[in-house]
Amino acid sequence: xxxxxxxxxxxxxxxxxxxxxxxxxxxxxxxxxxxxxxxxxxxxxxxxxxxxxxxxxxxxxxxxxxxxxxxxxxxxxxxxxxxxxxxxxxxxxxxxxxxxxxxxxxxxxxxxxxxxxxxxxxxxxxxxxxxxxxxxxxxxxxxxxxxxxxxxxxxxxxxxxxxxxxxxxxxxxxxxxxxxxxxxxxxxxxxxxxxxxxxxxx
Amino acid sequence: xxxxxxxxxxxxxxxxxxxxxxxxxxxxxxxxxxxxxxxxxxxxxxxxxxxxxxxxxxxxxxxxxxxxxxxxxxxxxxxxxxxxxxxxxxxxxxxxxxxxxxxxxxxxxxxxxxxxxxxxxxxxxxxxxxxxxxxxxxxxxxxxxxxxxxxxxxxxxxxxxxxxxxxxxxxxxxxxxxxxxxxxxxxxxxxxxxxxxxxxxxxxxxxxxxxxxxxxxxxxxxxxxxxxxxxxxxxxxxxxxxxxxxxxxxxxxxxxxxxxxxxxxxxxxxxxxxxxxxxxxxxxxxxxxxxxxxxxxxxxxxxxxxxxxxxxxxxxxxxxxxxxxxxxxxxxxxxxxxxxxxxxxxxxxxxxxxxxxxxxxxxxxxxxxxxxxxxxxxxxxxxxxxxxxxxxxxxxxxxxxxxxxxxxxxxxxxxxxxxxxxxxxxxxxxxxxxxxxxxxxxxxxxxxxxxxxxxxxxxxxxxxxxxxxxxxxxxxxxxxxxxxxxxxxxxxxxxxxxxxxxxxxxxxxxxxxxxxxxxxxxxxxxxxxxxxxxxxxxxxxxxxxxxxxxxxxxxxxxxxxxxxxxxxxxxxxxxxxxxxxxxxxxxxxxxxxxxxxxxxxxxxxxxxxxxxxxxxxxxxxxxxxxxxxxxxxx
Lengths: 202, 634
Description:
The complex is a heterodimer of chains A (202) and B (634).
Chain A: H1 2-21, E1 35-37, E2 43-45, E3 54-58, H2 64-71, H3 74-83, E4 88-93, H4 105-115, E5 121-124, H5 129-134, E6 138-139, E7 141-145, E8 151-155, H6 174-183, E9 198-199
Chain B: H1 6-14, E1 23-25, E2 28-34, E3 44-53, E4 58-65, E5 72-76, E6 81-83, E7 92-96, E8 99-105, E9 107-116, E10 125-137, E11 142-154, H2 168-176, E12 186-192, E13 195-201, E14 210-214, E15 227-230, E16 234-240, E17 251-258, E18 270-279, H3 286-300, H4 306-320, H5 324-354, H6 368-385, H7 406-420, H8 428-437, H9 440-463, H10 476-504, E19 521-523, H11 526-534, E20 539-544, H12 549-559, H13 562-570, E21 574-579, H14 585-593, E22 601-605, E23 613-615, H15 621-633
Parallel strand pairs in B: 12-18, 19-21, 20-21
Antiparallel strand pairs in B: 1-2, 2-3, 3-9, 4-8, 5-10, 6-9, 7-8, 10-11, 12-13, 13-16, 14-17, 15-16, 17-18, 20-22, 22-23
Helix pairs in contact in B: 3-8, 3-9, 4-7, 4-10, 5-7, 5-9, 6-10, 8-9, 13-15
């Protein structure tokens, strides 16, 4: 009997996990709402930001692809440029406890401070709830949501999959392209790409 | 590609000059290796980027899957030396949490062909340099590697002095893991909702599991389980469409790895797949399919062999003014005759389907006995119309009084169905595809609707005699009409005799009027098609049958069109005719591979292309010319 219950439990967890893993969002559809507590103890819901552009950035301080974009100053510069224009920039680390990139809130704050990052808020999504909700696969993995709450871009940060800082010179940034187009009332030319980077350490 | 013993390689390698200095970075020993100790100007030789990974670490295939990055080689070569693209051995699925990567553990040889120009004759050495970038990951972390590698090889003037070194074995072993182009394998992919169905037709079927690795990273959900099953013609692999798939690609491309191998010896493990993508027939509901079948059935009443049979019954109504009740009863029994024969046909189709045979609408005309019996019945009917006999509907059940036997109405319904079956009407194809692909109970429902459509005009005319009020009173006009209908039936009889002649091998009775200016058809055989494709000819396939009226119409109006004939000749297109007049397993299999259950089917392979274009069932000369021209202009 105990074995049966255990089996059922394991099966239930399996379906729950596989269900979570397969959650996906579709561009040009409503972005699912979520609530998370940031590294300073403050609660944020996506629905709080109706009327504003929102960028979701999946990151992991120890991933070389994330390092490429932070050490080069590329990501901090994007964060500064767009938060200055009223964009809400939420940086999310979905590394599970004990996995690479899992840090206490102060650790994530320190990483951002050291790199000169300027997101609106930083989150440790330790149970991977929001990561699974959006189907975040890699770090970085970017999502852009318009003021109506519609997902207007998901995928790679730029068109050059590499961990090499040199490649930033020639890469075309998809996130700024989507934001610039949408802010000027133009359609987003590329609204979905395959993200590149390290796997999210769920 | 599996791990070669690192220390052994090191030992052998160290006494060998054919590889350069190695680097160790990112948990990876990396180096360039040549298969030959020396190279000859004007020839191509093979070089490998050898990546030897620490335990638990992996590198990536050309499509890394959900995360990761594939290795890149930036060659720095003296002019006169050209390095080709990486030839990737097939990868493994590597699961990392909820994600799946495609890559290699332990060790991999990435093969690159290098061609060296004649102008190197005078040189003593050639030096190859490459900047290699790769990413190594384990379950936990990823580390980028970057190394500048060199390889210097002596140059020899002629082949006699060239020796292969001890790495040759590893090159050969890796070559066995390269995906092969196999022309005897045909594939197509159906996109159905969020699912891909990849159909792979192969003459050799093992009991293996198939794993498909796409070249693009946005076509399938990499982490989703792949389900492969053995089918009557090969394999079917079900894949989940990537949620970021937005393209409308012409082909699903990648490699398919078969655990049982793709040949008898299990030597070829991986093959290249370039499967034309078709969209699954829109998911029409049963009611829509039924409506389509009904409309199709109605239209079938206008087909040349059906119209006279229907007319005989209608004329009977006009002539005899039977009591309305009796007329209605006759029409319902006529409908029953149609339904019973349609059901019999459906039953036969489903039985054939269940034993793995493939059959489609009209397949019964593959039997010469069936054809000649139908010809005889139509002949008797036409004689009847010419007034040779004194009864109206076929020979059985005619009572001497003016009262007509119910059996006759039933038989008349059966004949209507039989003579309707070599024709396909608009709307019918969609409905019948659903009928044959769905559970049998749904199929029977759709066939029933088809039968009702076929029966409906006569039921309506019987139930509402007012519909016939515009018809003049019986008079001499009726005799002329009957004779005209009789002539149509005679034409049908002649056509059936022609079909019979071809099926029994007695000869093509119509050959005398064929012109010399026509496409030079060759009989279909998969080997001949492969050979023609290998010789880089354009290849056109026509799957047809003498009893298929639509096929014959396309043949006369399009494939015998002088512009089309000239274009085929000018472009050197080799044309194959798959004649399905008689049952032929090879042609049945070829049809199944293209996912078709009714003919005609037209397929065009552009020169040198390994992917077929499947043309619509209704073709025009413009369409054919456009397709073959478009491709040759490229």
